[in-house]
Specification:
alpha/beta, eight-stranded parallel β-sheet, 8 strands, globular, binds zinc ion
């Protein structure tokens, strides 16, 4: 099995602004942990740096008018009509190099898709990607260009059957929107329920339209859902649909903001649960394109994506973080020197029951409304 890690050191030179929760430094922090574990020099894995994507590649999904606005915003000044395109508000600030970084992120996911589609590798991981909220003509939720959609479109151009699985704590609304009427792409998103969290969508009833009814799958989760509740729910919904759909390739969005210490969400996964959900996808398709996503506790981002890259390569990691990572452990205030999380304190029994009941009902709803479209 051959793999590729797509990473650009340039990502570090951009900044959403000091007050913004999306810290670009999470990317080099992740890279350094991968390197410390010896995961950047694996014998069957290559490391590939993407070149910024051509505008025509990005225009495959986004409107020309919107891309013109992004280009004008690249100098770091708010374009007059920015608000119409979701720019300049708290979530999607305008900063110097915005267009350049959007091109770079798009390029990374397109490169990952190309490497997999051409057969050069079987699995690729672009952890700067997974910006799943962007719409064709609008920035949303810290996302300007939807690299996940671009990667899926590229894989489709190669004639591949694609399933998209999104385990970010937020609903993968931008990707769902792109393929809502396309039965050739199955999208599955598990996320904190829309009444509690941005973007406010992702209910079971959003199941696709026309021929694509049943090909947009949502599993909402209650606040405080932990790995013990999440993993069985994931198992009940995701593998049966993928086994039935038989994708050539799975595009996995690995937002790690469902972690219990993430400051923006209310889910309560541990790192083990996050990696187990991802690892469960590996036997379900011959090829994988993995992308990053949300993650606002940078220590979880580094550990989660390092562990995911190890799983993608079938490598077991020592629980003790490498000694050569000590500076980052100290600087970023890691609360432990272990890769894996210690058990969390148990929730009050009543809360635990409410969480399981909610998630059970959602699983039932998916099984009753979605499974029949797949003759399951
Ligand atoms: Zn998220």
């Amino acid at each position: 099995m051959k793999t590729a890690l797509v990473y650009s050191e340039k990502a570090d030179s951009f900044d959403y602004g000091r007050e913004h929760p999306l810290r670009m430094e999470r990317l080099p922090l992740t890279w350094r942990l991968m390197r410390a574990y010896g995961l950047t020099t694996l014998p069957h894995a290559r490391v590939v740096a993407p070149e910024p994507a051509a505008e025509t590649d990005i225009a495959r999904y986004h409107t020309r008018e919107y891309l013109d606005v992004l280009k004008r915003a690249d100098r770091g000044l708010d374009p007059a009509d920015g608000a119409v395109y979701g720019l300049g508000l708290g979530d999607n600030p305008v900063f110097r190099g915005l267009w350049e970084v959007a091109q770079l992120v798009a390029a990374g996911s397109l490169t990952a898709a190309d490497l997999v589609a051409s057969g050069a590798v079987d699995r690729a991981f672009h952890f700067a990607g997974g910006l799943h909220h962007a719409f064709p003509d609008r920035a949303s939720g810290f996302c300007y260009v939807n690299d996940a959609v671009l990667a899926i479109l590229r894989l489709r151009e190669h004639g591949l059957r694609v399933a998209y699985v999104d385990i970010d704590a937020h609903h993968g609304d931008g990707v769902q929107h792109a393929f809502y009427a396309d039965p050739h792409v199955l999208t599955i998103s598990t996320h904190e329920r829309g009444e509690r969290l941005f973007p406010g969508t992702g209910f079971v009833r959003e199941l696709g339209e026309g021929d694509a009814a049943g090909y947009s799958v949502n599993l909402p989760l209650e606040a405080y859902t932990d790995s013990a509740v999440y993993l069985p729910a994931f198992e009940a919904v995701v593998p049966p649909l993928l086994e039935r759909f038989k994708p050539d390739v799975i595009v996995a969005q690995l937002g790690v903001d469902g972690h219990r210490t993430d400051p923006l969400t209310h889910l309560a996964f541990d790192l083990q649960g996050f990696v187990r959900a991802f690892a469960r996808l590996l036997p379900l398709a011959p090829k994988i394109v993995a992308l990053g996503g949300g993650g606002y506790d940078v220590r979880n981002v580094a550990r989660g994506w390092t562990a995911a890259w190890a799983a993608l390569n079938g490598v077991e990691l020592a629980d003790e973080l490498p000694a050569s990572y000590a500076r980052d452990i100290a600087h970023y205030g890691f609360t432990s020197t272990k890769l894996w999380d210690a058990p969390a304190a148990a929730l009050p029994e009543e809360t635990q029951r409410a969480v399981s009941d909610y998630v059970d009902r959602q699983v039932d709803a998916v099984q009753t409304t979605i499974f029949p479209f797949h003759r399951l």
